[in-house]
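Milestone M4 deliverable, item 7.
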Amino acid sequence: MLSIIVIAKNEASNIRCCLESIQWADEIIVLDSGSTDNTVSIAKEYTPHVFETDWCGYGVQKQRALERATGDWVLNLDADESVSTELQHKIKAVMAEKEVDACRIPIQMVFYGKKLRYSSSPSRHIRLFKREGARYSDDIVHEKILLPSSSVVKQLNLSISHHSFQDLSHALYKLNRYSSYTSKSRIKNGKRAGFYRSIFGSVWMFFRCYVLQRGILDGQVGFLLAMYHAQGTFYRGMKQVYQDKDIEEILAESTYRERKCE
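Output delivered:
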């Protein structure tokens, strides 16, 4: 039995596409944290397992969703992600393999309707795993799934589609929000940052995304996203040096316009 967990807040523009792509699952858990749009009502069209709670960071939210799941296996999705029919069949096949306990699934960025082959396509994240003994870290951002030490992890070659940015303005909105989350977490953990270190880090991030990860092969969009990630690195460091005055206001979610399922 497979449970799919989705955390959401003000995701009316994305969540329908997400939930339509996973109707084959045995159980869908949606955990909302105070949406002011119609995210909750849309979710209820697809699953009876819709819960509402406060926001305590990504790690805590995903653990709360995981605690509500009852399946032997769990697939973790963001509300702006979707699963293809091919990946669905692959997931079902993996669940039948007795020697596998978890899977790393690549994430493929979809930007302005174009699927990018290289830019922002990490393959290291564990998204599918057996529920027994698993839990999420309590990190406010960049949370991790913690599995039993004996777990056997397999790498899949099919990707989850990630509709992360609806347009450039939305991308900049998310850059501001996530850089604030990350800087707050780093300050809390005593990690140091500096002006010149942030500059060097942003240059390295651009080189890594555009050259080492071959974002150059994605054309103009590859350059754009490499610049985006470089700016994210720079502002994460700068917000440790020049801290936000009202972090909760900065991190407040906003409703974004709806888009059609692609």
